[in-house]
Structures are given as C-alpha cells and as structure tokens.
Amino acid sequence: MLTLNVVGPPVVEDLNVLDSGNPNGPTWIDWSDPGLMLVHHLNDMTRECLASREDEVGKLKTAEEWKARQLKVRQTLDQILGPWPDRSPLNPRVTGTLQKDGYRVEKIVFESMPNFYVTGALFIPEGHKEPGPAILKVIGHSAQAFRRDLYQNVILNLVHKGFVVFAIDPLGQGERLQYFDPKTGKSTVGSATREHSHAGVQCFLTGRSIARYFIWDGIRAIDYLTTRPEVDPNRIGVTGLSGGGTQSSYIGAVDERVLAVAPTGFITSISRLLGSIGPQDAEQVFYHGPMLGIDHADLLEVRAPKPTLQVTTTRDFFSIQGARETAAEVHRAFQILGHPERFDQVEDDFGHGFTKQNNESTYEFFQTFLELPGDAEEQPHPFLTEAELTVTETGQVSTAFESENVFSINRREAKPLLERLEESRRDLDQHLPQVLSEATRLSGYRNPEAAVAPVFRGQYQREGYRVEKWGVPGEGETIIPTLVFAPDEPGTRPAIIYVHGEGKTTDAAAGGKIEELVRRGYVVAAPDLLGYGETTYKFRQGHSPVQPFFNALMSGRSVAGINAGDAVRVMNFLQNRDDVKPDQIGAIAIGDVGPALLHATAMEQQIQWLVLVDSLLDYQSIVNHELYDVNANSLVAGALTAYDLPDLLASITPRRVAVVQLRTHQQETATSNQIASSLGFVQQHAKDRLRVETEATDLLELVQWCVAP
User: Rounded to a whole number, what is the largest CA-CA distance in the chain?
Assistant: First the structure.
C-alpha cells in the first residue's frame, strides 16, 4: 500500500464511517441514518416471521380451517403467556361504599394471586335487581388509572345505561405501583410505561412475559364478577383504551367467558407498528410472538364469531393503516365462520384517545350484544374525586398490605431455574456443550455467511501507522463501521478486535489505548457493533431505550446475539488481510458490549483470547434485585432457562480470559465476594486460564498475559 506524507496544516480527522460527523461533510446515501440500521434489520426479521403467518392465514377458506387455526392460536397464546397461575382464593373485601345519584360504588380489593392485590371499583346501577350484563373496564397508561376523568366518563355513561362496571387498576398505576418509594410517594423507576418495562425485562430474562400478569388480573376480575348476584355470568364484556385496549384484546382472546369485547386505540398490525412507533412497553410485547405466528389480528380472530368491536381513530399513533388491514382480515374470518355482523371496526377523525362518536358506538355495541337495549347517546355526569375512589387506607397496596409485586413473584419463579442451572454445573463436561447449544438458540446467534467484500472509505496517516475506515458487511443489509489501525512497517502481525460500548472512537485518538497496542505490534480493528457508536439508536420522543431488545425477542433473536455474529465477521475480515496472522486474533470488549463479545468468543473457537473490562457480571442478579441499571441490548431473553454469562466464560477454557472490574446489576464494580459467588465454579474450572481483577489494570499487560504461552 502506498502512503504519501504531505506537509501541510494539521488534518482534522473524521473517524465516522457511515456518515460524516460534520453536518456539512460528505455522507454516503446508502448508509444514511445509521442510527436506524439496527431497527430496520430487526423489523425485517420480524416481518419475515409475519410473512409466514400471512401466507398461512391467506390459505384459510373454510370454517373448519379457521377453527383449526383458532385452536392453534389458543395453544400458542398459552405457550407464550404461561404457565398460568393456580386459581387461588380471591379473598375479596369491600373497603368502602359510595352512594351517588343513580348508582353506588363499592371499593374492592382482591388477590389475583396469593398476596398479589388488585384494587378496583364496582359501579352498580341504582335499582339493579335481576342479574344483568357487566363490563370489565381496563385502563390505559395513566397514573390515576380509572380515577382519571376521561375513563370516568365512559364508566359513568355505562353505569347510567344499566351496566354493572368493574374498573381495576393495572400494574404500575393507581394504587398498584410496583416500585413504590414511601419516602417520595412516587415510583422509583418512573412512569407507568417505565414500571411495566422495568419489570418486563426481568420477566423476559426468565422466558416469560409480563403480559401474563395483566391478563390474569383481568381473568380473576371476571371470576369476582361471576360471584356477584347483580351479574349474569353469560353477559360479560371487556373494554379499554390504549393500554386498556391491549388488556381487553388479551383478556377477550384468552378468557372464553367474555361474550363481547371492544378494544379501543391499540389494535393495528405488528408490521405497521414496527414501521411507525416501534414496540411499546413490555406487556404489549409477546415473548417470541411473531416468531410463533401471532399478530394483533389473532387476538380478535381467535374469538370469532363472538361479538367484537375494533375501535380506532384516524390520527392515532397506533397506525390506522394497520388497523384497517387487520379489520379486513378479521372480518373475513367472521364471515367464513358465519357471523359477519358480529364484527365491526369503527373509527373517528381524532388522535389517540376517546371520542364521543366512538364511545357511543361502544355503548350501542354492548347494548346490542349484552342484550340491554337503550339510548346510546353519551351524556355528561359529575366525576368523582380521586380521594373518593381511593381503595386502600394508604393509597398503595405495597404499604397497605404485605403485597407481592411482579418482581418478587418472578424472582421466586426464577429460583428453580437458577437451582437447575447450578445443579447442571456439577458436570461441566455435559453442561458446557448444552450451554453453547442453548445460548446459540436463545440469543439467536447465527454463524456468519460467506464473506462479502468490505468497502474502503479512506484513511488517515499518523506517525508510524495509519487509521483505515472500512464498511464491513454485517448481517442482512447492515454495515459494521470499522476502524483499522495498521502499522506502516510491512509484515504480518497478530490482531485484536477492540470493541467499546461508547463507540469505536473512544480510545482511537493519537496517544490513546489503541495506539499503544499498535505500537506493540498489533493490527487493531475497532468496530461499532449495531446499537453502539455510529449506529446508536436515537431515541425519539415517546420511544424507550429497551425497544431494540423487545423488537429482537419477538423474532427469537437478541441484539447481543446479532452483535456476536458481527464480531465474528470482523474477525473474518481481519483474517483476510495480508498484514494479519489469521490464527492470532484476540478480542477486547469494554463496557456494555462485553456480553456480546463473550457470546462471540464462546461460539467462535478462532478468537484466541478475550479481555473484558467493565462488563456485566451476570444476568441472574438483574432478576434477583428489584432495581437494576443495565443496557438491555446486552441481554438475552430467556437466557436464565438454560445459561448465564459465567457459563459462557467457563466454555471458553482452555483459551485465556481476563476480566477487569466486572459490573453488577447497578453498574457498580463487583466485589470479590460477588465475583466469587457468581464465578466460583468458573475459577475452579478454568484455573490459571482465567484472570480476575477487581481494580483497573494496564490493558497492554492483560493482553500480554492472554497471549503468553
């Protein structure tokens, strides 16, 4: 390679590969908006799953074929959401009664699971004598839950039209904050959506979905309604807006006692959801749902031909195009099953929320199919105060009772998984091959396909070495922006894959850590794996930092597993260079990318050694501690059903691994005791092939230890 040293003013280096860091600088059109590259790739994989589903549904022509599909969907939903808890005693109690004009309110608390308390209010029309229809009102993402005026408006109109209405607090809202801090009177993790996703990540690590808790609360609320003398158990409906639309869709799909359901402002299609706002909080994400052939339409089709009303608005952030496409498919199912009149989609010109027109359509729907005829016109009614509708003495179940929460239940359910894992580790000869097999499956790691030629983007000359800019083809249509630091002196050298969670440029400056390695005779490749550096997902307003993690698990993949495959691609790229010794390539991972490189090294024997700095100690600590602070891109949904990060460490032996300042679930430096508890079996197995440092250690010295004979 010819290098020209031109005397002139100092060069300002732009080490971005996909897009110029200078807004006035050059941009490659093909690689524009690199922050969305990961999201587009995840969307493509999920849509591949959905395409298989669409092909299957498109071939259904007869009622018998649709009934077979319904059975399959019910079994799949049980697989995704289960195992369902036992029907333990509800232990309902009335904590107060309000007498209002035309109705009364009983403030109710019951246990959907032992010591897992659900708060709600039962609205009963005045003069109600014979058993009549009842509606379970589930609530969207509001801190006040059913006490908020827009929800009260629907509740009060329904009760004044003669319906018994049971409104309950969802998890993380109203009086059911899951991470309540009595000192501040607020959630320690934030809004309802953050509460849902914080607990949801903990559930996903154990291979389960937090949606199960929302659905089970609804099922047990219906159990309670059937005990009331005012309620006809054969005339029960469910409705809700937004997150309540989610819950009503789920409950209507799973509980066959629901005669009529009217989800509002949720139903669209997963493909349109991905192409617009992306996956929402955790209960709206089914674990492996699209991979197993589940879309929004299935939640309605599985009910056919029971009465179902899809309530939508044209400017909702839940795509109206997806809603219309779903409605067309669902209508076909109802038509083939003989009752097209029992399904309808209504829409109004509005954003995300209730409208008078849609509400009146909902009232009329329930009046028709729950057999309570009357006037469907919406009327104003005086709202109750939040204080009037407070159910518990303290305003929170966590302080009013010795209440379980999702975290405590999930931790208990994770215990046998962790015990089984510990037992399996007693025979590492049998355990470790199983770990690699299961880690491959659960992480969605795929061996890189045949290498595609990389794209050279130019270089900068420094004293004694050059910094090359490469676009290395990644999985699918993605590009891995990579810097290669190569000594000028001819010859072949060992190489290092150097990945930093803060991006490839973090240690790339002249005089930095990478330069030190180059001057010691290494070729260093510093890539930005998807989701990091140049390819960091730019969180738009309303988007959550856990969205890529949620998006990946829908198709049975993980960002960590994809990153692991891309790290191997970078290794292959190095092996094809004429200045690299292909059998002498190691890896350094710093920060959040550590688990990805750990997966890569475990899967790929040609990575000769590994140094992990500031990497996550294990996954189980996230499940075992109520509060955590981790980058969800480093996690693998379902991992704890078969392995944890220490198991991957053990599988790398006899290759050498050095770990430095491992991080806990709270991003704190792990203590010697914490390390011994988590890595004790690894240390015993690896012996002198594993080096553990609890304090900062010179990186070059660690590399020299790794490559020593």
Answer: 96
Q: Which residues contact 103 (CB under 8 A, 6 or more apart)?
A: 123, 124, 125, 126, 156, 159, 160
Where among 393, 414, 435 does a domain terminate?
414
In whole angstroms, give the CA distance from residue 391 to residue 513: 59
Backbone φ/ψ region at 527: left (φ over 0), alpha (ψ -120 to 50), beta: beta
Any residues with CB less than 8 A from the CB of 618 and at least 6 apart, and which? 644, 645, 646, 678
- How far apart are the C-alpha atoms of 31 and 204, rounded to whole Å? 32
Q: Domain count for the chain, please give it.
A: 2
Question: Tell me: the pLDDT tens digits for 149-190?
Answer: 999 999 999 999 999 999 999 999 999 999 999 999 999 998
Considering the domain architecture, whether residues 444 and 350 belong to the same structural domain is answered as no
Residue 47 falls inside a structural domain? no
670: which 2 tokens? 């792990």
Listed in sequence order, the residues at least 6 apart from 497 whose beta carbon sits closer than 8 Å to its beta carbon are 525, 527, 567, 570, 571, 574, 585, 586, 587, 588, 597, 607
Q: How many CB atoms lie within 10 A of CB 365?
A: 23
Q: pTM score > 0.90 for this model?
A: yes
Query: Alpha-carbon distance 16 to 526, whole Å?
Result: 12
Nearest alpha carbon to residue 301 among 341, 273, 343, 271: 343
Residue ranges of alpha helices (H) inside 355-463 are: 356-369, 397-400, 406-424, 428-443
pLDDT in tens, 435-486: 999 999 999 999 998 777 999 999 999 999 999 999 999 999 999 999 999 9
In a domain? residue 683: yes
pLDDT under 70: residue ranges of the chain: 1-10, 20-27, 539-544
Task: Answer yes or no: do 389 and 452 share one domain.
Answer: no
Question: Within this chain, do residues 329 and 440 fall inside the same structural domain, yes or no?
Answer: no
Give me the CATH number covering residue 202. 3.40.50.1820
Q: Does one domain contain both 542 and 642? A: yes
Q: Is residue 5 part of a domain?
A: no
Tokens of 88: 């333990």
SS3 546: coil
The residue range of the domain holding 616 is 426-707
409 and 439 housed in the same domain: no
Q: State pLDDT tens for residues 392-403.
A: 999 999 999 989
Q: What are the pLDDT digits (tens) for 54-97?
A: 999 999 999 999 999 999 999 999 999 989 999 999 999 999 99
pLDDT value of residue 128: 84
DSSP 292-335: GT--HHHHHHTTTTS-EEEEEETT-SS-HHHHHHHHHHHHHHHH
| Cα separations in angstroms, 259 against 97, 120, 358, 366 | 29, 21, 20, 10
Give the strand pairing for 132-137 and 231-241. Answer: parallel
